[in-house]
Write a structure and sequence with these properties.
It contains 5 helices and 17 strands. The chain is globular and about 50 Å long.
């Protein structure tokens, strides 16, 4: 089975071209095998690129634990790069079908290859029952009643603001602010929040340190994948949360461990736009005897 490894701001996935080969029979099982960083290719998950009746291509995304997710902002940029660079479609903008719906992507090319992509991520979902979260209230903005667990003193060490804001970008996110994001014990606090009973479908967790109304840094614990170097939908959720809580303006530069993303929550149409890199790393063959296909 032919695969391509790609990354967007360090958020890396293994991609299968299902235009030119049959999709795996068990993509969830394959994702667990191929994502393993010691015994597999190593990635945050698996993404299938295939035909669509609604756009230029369709993507399906599976986390490293085999769970299927609705959407991945960094992943969809790489899908667009693959579709363009490998001659599947040279439409610009491209239309990519996702679990969130059909998204529009504008491509920046150099030497015939895609370098950066701007994605219209659509409107954020703010209603608690649609995110979903069981926290009380119609919208969860700077909610102070969520209980935090973790090692003793971690909250004081990072200057935690214990209020949370919840946003869905087609997948669920909780945004939490602190004064020093580097001191958050993410490997301990992240999984506790992901599986908190307040989030019936689990949740992506983001800790954010704001420098100015237009600049911040963030760290992410992704639902089903753990600590990742970037999360595109999460950065969009952070952009929305910043406006809702009065901490940032509508256009921000987000610094993530794997690189920078530019986000704008447009007032005119309520859509969030994200711009960032897309990089093809290498291609190879996954042996059929371990393919779970």
């Amino acid at each position: 089975m032919r695969f391509t490894k790609m990354e967007g701001a360090g958020n890396d996935y293994v991609y299968l071209d299902c235009f030119h080969q049959a999709p795996p029979r068990d993509p969830a099982g394959l994702s667990k095998l191929i994502s393993d960083r010691h015994f597999g290719v190593g990635s945050d998950g698996l993404i299938l690129i295939g035909p669509s009746e609604r756009g230029d291509a369709r993507m399906r995304m599976f986390n490293a634990d085999g769970s299927e997710a609705e959407m991945c902002g960094n992943g969809v940029r790489c899908v667009a790069k693959y579709v363009w660079d490998h001659g599947i479609s040279h439409n610009n903008p491209l239309k990519i079908e996702t679990g969130r719906g059909v998204l529009t992507l504008h491509l920046e090319t150099k030497g015939g290859l895609v370098e950066r992509v701007t994605v219209d991520m659509g409107e954020p979902i703010l209603e608690a029952e649609r995110i979903p979260t069981a926290l009380p209230g119609g919208k969860i903005i700077d909610y102070a009643g969520l209980q935090f667990n973790g090692p003793n003193g971690w909250d004081a060490a990072c200057g935690l603001d214990a209020r949370v804001t919840c946003v869905s970008m087609g997948n669920p996110h909780v945004v939490i602010y602190c004064k020093n994001v580097g001191k958050v014990p993410l490997e301990q606090v992240g999984p506790l929040l992901e599986t908190n009973t307040a989030f019936p479908k689990r949740i992506n967790v983001h800790f954010v340190e704001v420098f100015s109304p237009s600049e911040l840094t963030m760290r992410t614990w992704e639902r089903g994948s753990g600590i990742t170097l970037a999360c595109g939908t999460g950065a969009c959720a952070v952009a929305v949360a910043g406006v809702l809580t009065g901490r940032t303006g509508r256009s921000i530069l987000a610094h993530l461990p794997g690189g920078d993303l530019q986000l704008t929550w447009q007032e005119s149409d309520n859509h969030v736009h994200m711009t960032g890199p897309a990089v093809e790393v290498f291609s190879g063959e996954w042996p059929e005897r371990t393919s779970a296909s």
